[in-house]
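Protein data:
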Amino acid sequence: MGVTVRMRVALAGSLLLLAAGVASAGPSSRHGVIIRAAKPYDAIERSVQALGGVVTHRYENIDAVVASIPDERYAEFAASVGSGKAIKDQLVAAPRPVAGAVHGQRVGRAVVEAIAAQALDAAAIVATPADYASSNTLIGADKLFADGNLGQGVIVAIIDAGTANSPVVAALSGRVIGGENLVSDDPVTSATSRNNGAHGTWVGTVIAGNASFSFKNSSALVKGLKLDMPSAIVGDCPDPPAVANCAVPIVGVAPGAKLYAIKVFPSTGESAPESRVMAAMDRAITLKRNFDQGGSTAPVSGDGTEDNPYQYDALNIQVVNMSLGGSTNFAGRDLEDELTTKMIKQGITLVASAGNAGFAAMTGGSPGSGFGALTVGAASEPAHERLVADVFLCGLGCGPAYRPSDVIQTADFSSRGPTADGRFDPDITANGVWVFAQGTCEGDSGCVAGTGRAPLSFVSGTSFSAPTVAGAAALLRHAAPWASAGQIRNALILGANPRLLGDGSKRIDQGNGFLDVPAALSKLKHGRVSSMIERSFPTSVVQWNIGALGFRPVAFRGNSFSTHVAGLKPGEVAQFFVPADMRTDQFVVKFSNITPALPPEQQNQLFGDDILVRIADAPTSTWSSPCSLTAAGTCEAYINSDQAITIDNPQTGLVRVAIQGDWTNAGKVSADLVIERTQGRQGPPTAFGRVQQDDLIPVQVEVPAGTAQAVFELAWEGNWARYPTNDVDMFLIDPNSDVNVDGATSASPERVVIDNPVPGAWTVYVQGFTVRPLRGDPDGNADEYALRVTADGKRLPAVQSN
């Protein structure tokens, strides 16, 4: 999965202007909302229509609808449906390959051009000893191929940007049986078009690719393969002029499986509302339910062509791949996560990417946080890293210098656990670095016209480790048709190899281990696999939840913590959980005595051996940088000498400091870590009280003339230190009726600093954006908030407060 941060849809200004008594101009804007409501939905539809809204989607497998409400009626609507029933529709960013840099050397994607392509038949696939697309030999898929198991007859649905069924995508010839487009306003109306974004087609080729591509023997790719992955070349390929061209296959993990595309991201690469992603999950469940109830699997529309795909009312979908996702403040129990358990119950094994938020702890998001999901992290295989270095980065022969460590590692970008409710995460790991895949045209004129092929790319991300496991699930489905969806999921987890990775990866890094398909099948055949899905029984305190897994926050003596981090292997990560409360003004994280174990001449000869540091702010299920533009240093850095990183005003909860032995190191490295904390005194708040879901509470303050800086800070009890995390927003209206929405984020606390503020009466609105009952709270429906407003450091009292 590319970096896929989930973003809120903020309230439009008209609601705030109305609340401030200011007439809004122009036509009313509308507000997307997901509503928990009981079927048959008649009552909720009447309520929505009475307020000028419209129901835009009705879910079949959960009790909820999606509606569009005029902003100026939203507060009235939320009050009418009851506390906690209305949930703001959020945006899920379109997934993309990981783009990053390692000492300026990593690229986000590398493209190669073949001179010919040919679909492979079953015999050719079985004869292929290895393939670059998913390292089928490494995961043991080739052993199932040898038994004739290619995943035949298994249908895998891909919820993504569409999956191409086009002659320009030879890797998926005959694999895509149809699709549905859920994006109503996209100029590309087909889910199987060559003109969609490439991501869902890359995913499809990892699952079910079945083609061989010819490259010039003299090409850099073939030369690099001969150095790093000779088994990825089919047949003899002696140096030219003996042979002019050489064949390199893309063989998916289940090359006999069929694919069904459910398109949720537009061809323009824009985000999708969470409600649409949920609708795709809901649709997959409905298709499987209809099949299980004896529905006809004959197409109900379409002619099977690229721009008019077959669609169905019933389909035996047994595996779903979701290489997408984002943050959640209610891990395992929000509506999207709830759909993961519905899938399992309906007989669908859902495979989800862990996310690409990096190696700091607690960065895995939803739907991977769902109880029913099989969540996949990404591993980095040396041969893949070396090949791309040889071909694209530093010239043939530099690969071993670029990646000197011979062990498989957890990829540095792969999101880590645990979850806020106290579960290890991810579940399993597979290669996700420099996967060879074919995509869509992406605007290439020859490809669009059909005179050329869709580009071949090397791409990285948990987006591509997930379909590796989805393909493995399809193989198990074919081999063990009696097994339930839960047993398939659990067999893959139980069969994973925790010893293959050699970087000291722990359960929050690699899950149960690296994918091992034969081991999973053996567990199924010997009846050792339960259908039960793990659930959690969390407290309301995140620290206690992860403490049950053995993770403890650092203990300050006075306001300082120090430790020695010894002997980190290349790719190994040490995690530190740093508690921050409302009194915490600053952390200074100091690194010193960076000491490689190897002498300089034996270290990485391109970069030297060092440490890689990544610091995550308190929000869980994502990476949120706590470093501002004015902070010293950066919150992700390669460090080989003494350095300090300053974090001002960290959010409340657990800040995570992660130190990695740089994955490009040749040997171990050690360092000293000191964390210094500055705490300030908190005087009485400007206003405090209780806030419920969708409350809009006004507080007025008088900002004196001549004020150089005003600071507005809103805190609440159910912050990132609590489970579930509440989301309370702060909107400001100045004396000129201008609206400031900088305090309407997912931060906790919300903090807005205004230089040279307009003097006079300011109104602060405290809004309950998402307020759930805190566990153990007898009152149940509200959270406690405290608003502090200062002018040049002096507290401002509330002039009016409700």
